[in-house]
């Protein structure tokens, strides 16, 4: 049972901010193996700040972050990555490198001497990238670039993929395609933590956390969220 599995990642009481401004207040959030967790929140709620403190791009001021049995709260970002947590930000690809070079950069993070087999596997998931493998990433459409960002992140063979707004800048059709790919990845056993404003991602979520003003306002299953009248009104525009 998912609910009984030990967490793959567990953040407890995380405070974070910038300079004198505190953005996060005691955030608790966990992801279990194979789960897809959605972090919902409006603009400025603190989603990106939380993801950055999780992956080590900013330091949590209080609280702790564990990856499986290891306390990573003060660990460098690259070491957290080696332990299996990869971050996909909105600016995930290098525009001047070719598609294949981008994927290989992702694999290098793990120190693979020859990531060829992994690259081929990823082309199996994203055939459009194989067709354009020698083209610069800048020649891709926004949606294709997003696919490349996901492929590059997956090249590092993460246990937990942390994604910041994968729907940003995409047409509704491409958002559907990204959701389809994420549900395919879930089927392969990868755990996902996705920060989003787009409630379409509830389709793939096993649990949801709602962040408001830097505090967790709700955590539970999708069904529990839709049972909550105030959240239903705020996020689905329903009475
Ligand atoms: N580098 C920074 N320096 C100072 N303040 C920042 C910085 N980055 C974010 N903030 C502030 O922190 C707060 C939370 O921002 P954050 O980007 O975490 O929110 P978010 O939920 O990801 O929003 P969005 O959905 O708009 O990306 C905002 O008030 C923002 O202005």
Description:
The protein folds into two domains: 165 residues, Rossmann fold, CATH 3.40.50; 66 residues, no CATH class. It is 35% helix and 26% strand. It has nine helices and ten strands. Helix 3 packs parallel to helix 6. The longest helix has 16 residues. The chain is globular and about 50 Å long. The two termini are 33 Å apart. The model has no long low-confidence stretch (mean pLDDT 90). The site of adenosine-5'-triphosphate has 12 residues, from strand 2 and helix 1. It comes from Bradyrhizobium canariense. This is Amino acid/amide ABC transporter ATP-binding protein 2, HAAT family. Belongs to the ABC transporter superfamily. Involved in beta-(1-->2)glucan export. Transmembrane domains (TMD) form a pore in the inner membrane and the ATP-binding domain (NBD) is responsible for energy generation.
Number of helices: 9
User: Major beta sheet, specifics?
Assistant: 6 strands, mixed
What compounds sit in this structure?
adenosine-5'-triphosphate
According to DSSP, the number of beta strands is 10
Strand content: 25-35%
In CATH, the architecture of the largest domain is: 3-Layer(aba) Sandwich
Query: Measured on Cα atoms, how large is the radius of gyration?
Result: 18 Å
Distance between the termini: 33 Å
CATH class wording of the largest domain? Alpha Beta
How many domain regions?
Answer: 2
**CATH level-four homologous superfamily name of the largest domain:** P-loop containing nucleotide triphosphate hydrolases
Read across the widest sheet, the strand sequence of neighbours is 6-7-8-3-9-10
Shape: globular
Query: Could you spell the SSE succession in H and E letters?
Result: EEEHEEHEHHHHEHEEEHH
CATH fold call of the largest domain: Rossmann fold
- Averaged pLDDT: 90
Low-confidence stretches: none
| Class by alpha and beta content | alpha/beta
The level of helicity is 25-40%
């Amino acid at each position: 049972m998912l609910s009984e599995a030990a967490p793959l990642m567990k953040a407890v009481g995380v405070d974070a901010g910038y300079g004198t401004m505190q953005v996060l207040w005691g955030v608790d959030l966990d992801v279990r193996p194979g789960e897809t967790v959605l972090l919902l929140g409006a603009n400025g709620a603190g989603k990106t700040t939380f993801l950055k403190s999780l992956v080590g791009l900013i330091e949590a001021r209080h609280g702790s972050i564990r990856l499986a049995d290891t306390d990573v709260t003060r660990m460098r970002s690259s070491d957290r990555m080696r332990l299996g947590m990869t971050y996909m930000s909105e600016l995930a690809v290098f525009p001047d490198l070719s598609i294949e070079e981008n994927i290989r950069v992702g694999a290098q993070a793990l120190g693979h001497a020859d990531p060829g087999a992994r690259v081929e596997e990823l082309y199996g998931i994203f055939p459009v990238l194989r067709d354009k493998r020698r083209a610069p990433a800048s020649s891709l459409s926004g949606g294709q670039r997003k696919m490349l960002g996901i492929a590059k992140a997956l090249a590092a063979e993460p246990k937990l993929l942390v994604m910041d707004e994968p729907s940003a800048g995409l047409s509704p059709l491409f958002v559907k395609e990204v959701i389809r790919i994420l549900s395919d990845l879930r089927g392969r056993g990868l755990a996902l933590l996705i920060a989003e404003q787009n409630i379409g991602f509830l389709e793939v979520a096993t649990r949801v956390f709602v962040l408001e003003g830097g505090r967790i306002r709700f955590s539970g299953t999708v069904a529990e969220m839709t049972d909550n009248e105030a959240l239903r009104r705020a996020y689905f525009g329903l009475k």
